[in-house]
Design brief:
The complex is a heterodimer of chains A (1187) and B (333). With 1187 residues, chain A is an alpha/beta fold. Chain A is built from 41 helices and 38 strands. The longest helix of chain A has 25 residues. By secondary structure, chain B is α/β, with parallel strands linked by helices. Chain B has a single domain, classed as Alpha-Beta Barrel (TIM Barrel), CATH 3.20.20. The chains are: A alpha/beta (1187), B alpha/beta (333). At the A-B interface, helix 2, helix 15, helix 20 and helix 40 of A face helix 2 of B.
């Protein structure tokens, strides 16, 4: 059965070799390379050895800069060492890379190449990161496929040891790092035989050792630096030969022959395309097709980009080459051309046969930035264009550039994949297991049959209700089609409700098969389909099947997990394998995959398989379309023009069609757009019973999506309300009589149930009935939608009349953070929403990269929003590693403007009138009433200024609004604050400036998949801490308190909402730096998200998360500045911890270690409480001059 | 005169009737060893709960599948680890306990599926258990759950286990059957070698703050033993199987009463948790003294001497007992 092949993704293919050949591995998470570090950590935790029979030491660092430093040190210590990274991470490694190369150190850094953040962040693939390090002295070796990633990881390792030139081995982020493909793995013996032990020992012997001391890292003066720098040249001169030799040795051992440059195509080609990276796969198919059609074209694959071997490069060109086109997957604004293009030009200028009639014409183009699709049809277009009379010297391919007119047109119809490749596309939800099942299918076919298999998966950027599209190919030949499937012989839609939102049959080819998971039977389904889809089924003559997978899943006790059912149906219909064999294989795979989860899990999956084929029904397609179902509009008609034109296109999955002119030139987008995207992902929504409501506001407070709101309004408004609108009226004699409504927005609710969980109002007659209950959305949608539409028209409360320091009061204020794509039940977003309610209309946010920057700023829409006056949070994300400094910078600018305005006020005091000027002078801005008055004052000021004829008056007019205090919030996760920007956080706190740092503390790197940070508690498991985190969680709060001049609070909304609100107000009003550590539950804790807010209460009761506030103002007043807001631990930590999988898992996996760590964790808690309670009695003086 | 305390329970020769029943005290090897030293004649390990094992396996599966492959940046959230979710940890403790003490070690099992009962009992046998105690616990909640069907299920699984394993099979049940003598007869017919009377079905409590049911562990009280005393006396002469009394055995008198009605052994947990393992020594001495003082020679001699057929007032065991209690409370002397 096992055919010796494995199906893995590019990250695993690389990590296997890196782990086997290294002794020290420094890691730090960054997409899309994180998997490599995770695997290395997990393997080491499981006691796996490398080929030297040593378990590599895997050490997590605080940043990629730290990883590079540790790498450098470890290499100097003589260990074989590596690291993995991408994008910004690689940039942080640059200084050490120069050092490592300058010292001729053997090492490999493996990079999943990813875009650098410019006008926007992109987690996707291109070469802008690796091209930024081409001057470091590292060799750059490029893999174009999963097999190559595995092989080149080995070749770069063996070559660096011999050459002493360090290597950067890279492959395309996502396209290769995340593509699952069938590869031939290297055995440990292969690896051993390919490593030159002499070189290994030479490397070890160059280490720093007091028994044979040396000095490395000198400072040199103008007299010698230059010569000494040139001394390394011979090593670079020799490196190319060494790489080729290693490739040859590799071929001897494995039969897979590689070259530094490799030409494929017509031996007498007149046009040659030069490129590197995964695009080669698409290009090779195009070149082959063109040659079959009688053209003469070729492809020159670049593997070793640095050092650049001109001779070998030029030797690959057919003598007949007349024109060369170079494609770069990066952009260098302002350059003559991109790097590969420039090198090709230089190489040809330097080395083209001088006897030749003439050198070829060379053009250059950009493609594939940020994982933009790159297809064979685009290559055909590029080569066609190259044949025209006046080909563009510089162009782009794959986009429509209607601004600078750089782009070439292309026609996808020019290329078709071979008929014997089975192509299947699957649409699903992230939560339904579609991707997992498809990975499994690829494995089944790849590892158990002679067929080749490839899987590539596309995710949207939502965390809740995200959709996935899986692209699977099965072929008798190795599959190098590095692009999405455009024409699929099999299309499956695993979720019925996607039909009206996505054009799932766009990729279906004529006469193909369409499988739909449908609650409707074959007889009933037709008129439930959108008419547009019916038309496609008819036009394309599709074989149409339905199955009620949800029912089967329920029947076998796997509710919601329809993956195995759909997988079985796929094999039944797609006929990749004979059905009986396929079913046997699926069953074997189930036993393999789920065997470790126990017989019950295996059994229910096997039951699902058995039930599936029988339940599959073919639909007799009617002759015509029927019914009145239609595709949904992505955004409503009343949305602003930009949202309709651009955002709507992105939402409906047609962003690829948007031309350059559609976009802002500098990455600046409008806020308040999430409201136009009605995602409708909940099955259950909260439904309000006003009769038992106690008007506490907790439901609205904890809602992560601002999807349940409270409003108090003049009861007179009810006159216009729809009949079924609900409200609680104040006493009839109150003047004016007011009404309060709790309203859900059914289209935006994610159905997490947190609001219902925290609702304290229970029916006296039926305990399970609360003032809000989760009910099936289908039963309540129409009514609740109508109610919400009216609710939205009711005027917002007058902010100056609200007690904003209470839960109830704060929740009457309009949230300016709404409907984010964060996970259902997210623990972070309630804090942001609360902030936006309290200070949103005068708030500026500097947001560190992470979850909050993704749900806050990932296109298509943003939850940051505006009020009726158009005011709202202004938001920006700079980087992960600089956010504190970035926010400080914004503060400085704001302060400067305000100071200037104040200065002008006093300069112009006579013109303005002494009364108004004095009013400004003495105005306070301590509450909403003050702010309102200040806004009124500014309006009056502007009015007065209009008649003052003075340039200063003109200037003051422009900046007068800055006289309203700006609330500066610097926001990020614990990975940001505790680790990568800790230095910055510390520095900013020391400046005394009026900034507020909010740490959404989940205790892990949530966004990249739950890697440990220094906030990860002792005894928890996390990625990078698979053996259980050993160290005590860093006490950031105490570090900040040590300054004495910083306001510090530790809060947990679920445990004590009033304290959290108080802390927000105090931090905001404190005229210096403030730090708030906000406990944020997270799916990475392995908890029940519905009860997560209540769980916070237990965490606080256990003493795990003490609540406190340190207010330097109290020191000034002569009071104790440190106030412990939570009580003495009253329940054992273990009791609470075991409700979180991150703790419980260790007990299941390594019980002894878990016991030991849990004991220490309890001691941490006891000790911390004892320390904090002493601190509460400590007097301090407030010694700063300001504020 | 030396008193012979030895007895036979489930065909196992015990040097006294004092067995440490399932409790945290029998959950680790070191403690089992100390129980032996203190005078326990056998130990019953805490139950292996099949349902819990399955639950945990499902939870781990759910954990790894929840939000997996949903987002490009985070295809998973937990490191894949080797979990010890099956019965391995339990079996390891069992095997270690067996090898570190001389007294019989009885494994206890609470299954959830037919296959699970049989499979786990086999594993316990393989690990060397002296006997297996089936801790059967079924709460019917549907009004169409038929009493006969429930009893048949009990019998079927007892038969399935006893047909598969070669070690003695004890059955621990509660007292809530319409006709206990009949059902116990059927258990024995199905293959039960002994009965442990009675299982204390721990009922949940109500948390008045949250208005929710909460699991509540309540230790036994001496009063509880009286239910067992009655039924053991009734059953003793009618079944050919071992009987252990459990639930409320707190002092020497309780031990003696249990033996009188016909128990082959007594099982204790609460009192050992309260008074410590060494209390076993006191009980042993106390039992010897009581037998001496009352001129018995052996445990065998006293065992069952007050069974329904041998006692002086069998009417005291039937409904009249209730009537008498009622009148004596309601009619002052």
């Amino acid at each position: 059965m096992d055919n010796g092949y494995v199906t893995v993704d590019g990250n695993e293919a690389t990590a296997r070799v890196a782990f086997s050949t290294n002794e020290v591995i420094a890691i730090y998470p960054i997409t899309p390379s994180s998997t490599m570090g995770e695997l290395a950590d997990a393997w080491a935790a499981a006691g796996q050895s490398n080929v030297f029979d040593v378990i590599p030491q895997v050490v997590q660092m605080q940043s990629e800069g730290g990883a590079a430093g540790a790498l450098h040190g470890s290499l100097q210590g003589g260990a074989l060492s590596t690291t993995f990274t991408a994008s910004q991470g690689l940039l942080l490694m640059i200084p050490n890379m120069f050092k490592i190369a300058g010292e001729l150190t053997s090492a490999v850094i493996h990079v999943a190449a990813r875009s650098l953040a410019t006008h926007a962040l992109s987690i996707f693939g291109d070469h802008s990161d690796v091209m930024s390090v081409r001057s470091t002295g590292f060799a750059l070796l490029s893999s174009a496929s999963v097999q190559e990633a595995h092989d080149f990881a080995m070749i770069s390792q063996s070559a660096t040891l011999r050459a002493r030139v360090p290597f950067l081995h890279f492959f395309d982020g996502f396209r290769t790092s995340h593509e699952v493909n069938k590869i031939e793995p290297l055995s440990d013996d292969d690896i051993r035989s390919l490593l030159d032990m002499e070189s290994v020992w030479a490397h070890r012997n160059r280490s720093l050792d007091p028994d044979r001391p040396v000095l490395r890292g000198t400072a040199q003066n103008p007299d010698v630096f230059f010569q000494a720098r040139e001394a390394a040249n011979p090593f670079y001169d020799a490196a190319c030969d060494i790489v080729q030799q290693e490739m040859d040795r590799f071929a001897e051992r494995t039969g897979r022959q590689y070259k530094l440059f490799e030409y494929v195509g017509a031996p007498d080609a007149d046009r040659v395309i030069v490129m590197m990276g995964s695009g080669i796969g698409a290009a090779e198919e195009a070149v082959e097709a063109m040659n079959q059609a009688g053209e003469k074209v070729g492809l020159l694959k670049v593997r070793l980009f640095r050092p650049f071997d001109v001779t070998r490069f030029l030797a690959e060109f057919p003598k007949t080459t007349r024109r060369v086109v170079v494609l770069d997957r990066t952009k260098e604004p302002g350059a003559i051309g991109e790097p590969l293009y420039q090198d090709v030009i230089t190489a040809i200028a330097e080395g083209w046969d001088p006897q030749a009639e003439r050198t070829p014409l060379v053009t250059g183009g950009r493609y594939g930035l940020g994982s933009k699709e790159f297809t064979p049809a685009m290559v055909i277009a590029v080569l066609d264009h190259l044949a025209t009379d006046n080909p563009k010297r510089h162009f782009t391919i794959g986009i429509h550039d209607d601004v600078s007119l750089t782009s070439l047109p292309w026609d996808e119809e020019r290329f078709n994949e071979p008929d014997d490749v089975t192509r299947a596309v699957f649409y699903g939800l992230g939560s339904d297991g579609t991707v997992g099942a498809n990975k499994n299918s690829v494995k089944i076919v790849g590892e158990n049959t002679p067929l080749y298999a490839q899987g590539y998966f596309v995710y949207d950027s939502r965390k809740a209700g995200s959709t996935t599209v899986s692209h699977l190919r099965f072929s008798p030949r190795p599959i190098n089609s590095t692009y999405l499937i455009r024409k699929a012989s099999f299309v499956a839609c695993h979720q019925f409700e996607l039909l009206r939102r996505m054009d799932v049959l766009e990729t279906a080819e004529p006469n193909g098969t369409f499988l739909l998971n449908s609650p409707f039977s074959a007889d009933e389904v037709w008129d439930h389909l959108p008419v547009e889809m019916q038309k496609q089924i008819l036009d394309k003559n599709l074989d149409f099947y339905v199955i009620d997978a949800a029912k089967i899943a329920r029947d076998v006790n796997m509710a919601g997990r329809i993956n195995v059912v759909m997988q079985t149906c796929f094999f039944a219909l797609a006929k990749v394998l004979p059905i009986d064999e396929a079913i046997e294989q699926i069953k074997t795979a189930i036993e393999k995959t789920y065997g470790k989860r126990g017989p019950a899990v295996v059994e229910k999956n096997l039951n699902a398989v058995s039930a599936s084929v029988a339940a599959l029904q073919q639909v007799t397609v009617p002759a015509s379309t029927e019914g009145d179902q239609h595709m949904l509009q992505p955004v409503p008609d009343f949305a602003p023009d930009f949202v309709k034109r651009v955002t709507g296109m992105i939402i409906s999955g047609k962003g690829d069609l948007l031309p350059v002119s559609a976009f802002p030139v500098d990455g600046t987008f409008p806020t308040g757009t999430a409201t136009y995207e009605k995602r409708n992902i909940a099955d259950m929504i909260p439904v309000w019973d006003p009769d038992i409501c106690i008007e506490c506001g907790l439901c609205a407070l904890v809602c992560p999506h601002a999807a349940i709101r409270t409003k108090r309004f003049d009861a007179a408004e009810l006159a216009n309300a729809p009949e079924n609108f609900l409200a609680r009226l104040s006493k009839p004699n109150s003047e004016p009589q007011t009404a309060l409504t709790v309203q859900v927005t059914p289209e935006d609710c994610t159905g997490c149930g947190v609001c219902v969980n925290v609702c304290p109002a229970k029916s006296k007659e039926v305990v399970k009935h609360k003032s809000i209950d989760m009910m099936p959305k289908a039963d309540h949608f129409d009514v609740e939608k109508e109610r919400y539409e009216f609710f939205a028209t009711i005027p917002d409360v007058d902010r100056s009349t609200v007690k904003s320091n209470t839960v109830k009061g704060s929740q009457l204020m309009l949230p300016l953070f709404e409907f984010s794509g964060a996970c259902a039940g997210c623990g972070e977003t309630p804090y942001l929403k609360l902030l936006s309610q309290l200070f949103g209309d005068r708030m500026v946010v500097a947001n560190a990269t992470g979850c909050s920057s993704i749900y806050g700023g990932n296109l298509p829409t943003t939850p940051w929003s505006t009020n009726a006056e158009g005011r709202g949070p202004a938001w920006s994300n700079s980087l992960f590693e600089d956010n504190a400094e970035f926010g400080l910078g914004i503060r400085l600018a704001i302060d400067g403007k305000r100071d200037r305005a104040n200065h002008l006020l006093s300069e112009l005091s006579e013109e303005i009138g002494l009364e108004l000027a004095t009013e400004f002078l003495y105005a306070t801005q301590n509450n909403e009433q003050d702010i309102l008055s200040q806004r009124g004052r500014i309006a009056r000021l502007k009015e007065v200024l209009r008649s003052v004829d003075d340039p200063d008056a003109r200037e003051l007019e422009r900046i007068a609004d800055s006289l309203v205090d700006r609330s500066m919030w610097i926001i990020g996760g614990d990975g940001w604050a505790y680790d990568i920007d800790f230095g910055g956080v510390d520095h900013v706190l020391s400046t005394g400036r009026n900034v507020n740092l909010l740490v959404l503390d989940t205790g892990v790197y949530s966004n990249t998949g739950g890697q440990a940070s220094k906030a990860t508690p002792r005894a928890a498991t996390a990625k990078f801490a698979a053996f259980g985190r050993e160290a005590h969680r860093k006490d950031m709060g105490q570090m900040a308190i040590a300054y004495g001049s910083v306001y510090v609070a530790q809060i947990a909304m679920g445990a004590n909402p009033a304290q959290a609100i108080k802390a927000f107000h105090e931090a905001e009003s404190f005229p210096g730096p403030s730090l708030i550590l906000a406990y944020s539950h997270c799916i990475a804790h392995g908890i029940d998200m519905t009860s997560a807010m209540s769980h916070q209460k237990d965490l606080v009761k256990s003493g795990f998360w003490p609540l406190y506030r340190y207010d330097p103002r109290n020191a000034r007043k002569g009071e104790h500045p440190f106030r412990l807001d939570s009580k003495k631990p009253s329940i054992p930590f273990k009791e609470v911890a075991m409700k979180e999988a991150r703790f419980a898992m260790l007990a299941r996996s390594k019980p002894d270690r878990a016991r030991e760590l849990m004991k220490l964790a309890q001691r941490d808690i006891d000790e911390t409480y004892s320390y904090y309670s002493q601190l509460a009695d400590v007097d301090r003086e407030f010694t700063d001059l300001t504020p | 005169m030396s008193i012979d305390l030895s007895t036979t329970y489930l065909g196992l020769k015990l040097d006294s009737p004092l067995i440490a029943s399932a409790s945290p005290l029998t959950g680790d090897v070191d403690s089992v060893r100390k129980l032996e030293q203190a005078g326990a004649s056998a130990v019953v390990l805490p139950s292996l709960f099949e349902e819990q094992i399955d639950h945990e396996r499902r939870e781990v599966e759910r954990l790894h599948e929840f939000q997996a492959d949903s987002m490009a940046e985070s295809l998973s959230f937990f490191p894949e680890m080797e979990y010890n979710l099956g019965p391995d940890e339990y079996l390891k403790t069992l095997a270690e306990a067996i090898s570190s003490v001389k007294i019989p070690v009885i494994a206890s099992l609470n299954g959830a599926t037919r296959g699970g009962w049989v499979h786990h009992a086999q594993l316990m046998e393989q690990a060397g258990a002296s006997a297996v105690e089936l801790n059967i616990y079924f709460i019917p909640t549907e009004r169409n759950a038929n009493g006969n069907d429930v009893e048949n299920q009990y019998c079927e699984l007892i038969a399935a286990v006893s047909e598969t394993v070669h070690i003695p099979v004890g059955v621990k049940v509660g007292p809530y059957f319409t006709s206990l003598p009949d059902v116990v007869r059927r258990f024995v017919q199905a293959g039960a070698d002994g009965l442990v009377l009675f299982n204390r079905y721990l009922a949940p409590d109500i948390d008045l703050d949250s208005l929710t049911f909460e699991p509540a562990l309540k230790l036994s009280t001496p009063d509880e033993l009286r239910v067992a005393l009655r039924w053991i006396a009734i059953l003793r002469d009618q079944i050919d199987a071992s009987i252990a009394a459990t639930g409320g055995v707190h002092n020497v008198e309780d031990v003696v009463k249990s033996l009188l009605v016909g128990a082959d052994a007594v099982m204790m947990a609460t009192i050992l948790l309260q008074k410590g393992r060494d209390y076993l020594g006191e009980l042993r001495t106390g039992l010897t003294r009581w037998l001496e003082e009352h001129e018995y020679e052996s445990v065998e001699q006293i065992k069952g001497s007050m069974s329904i057929n041998r006692c002086a007032n069998p009417e005291g065991l039937n409904r009249a007992n209730y009537m008498k209690a009622l009148t004596s409370y309601t009619t002052p002397e």
